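ugh ok fine here u go
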Amino acid sequence: MAIEFFLHMLPPTSTHQMKKVRVVKGKPVFYEPAELKAVRSKLTAHLSRHVPDEKYTSAVRLVTKWCFPISGKHQDGEYKTSKPDTDNLQKMLKDVMTDLGFWKDDALVASEIIEKFWAMIPGIYISIESLE
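structure:
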């Protein structure tokens, strides 16, 4: 089973790394600030249209291409080498995909290809394929 789709949107630049911590009764409590909650909500809204009928239950390859709007002297298709880091972008995306039921657990993602580009059409290309 394989699926692929493009989320036509401005890719979020706030990442999972922006979680905050506060101390309650002497113990750390982690929480998402409003900006991060907004990112989660945006990804949920866009991804919800693409949830497969059946969850993946075995190893998958996840390919993501983050397409950021062109700025400065960059050109369409040029690799983006500035922040945010690909691993930070990917964490929130996979968490939301897990919550929506793309797979039983994001630990099933055994292979990942993550790229980020400057692009005329901003968004996130996603491909998931079974490895079995």
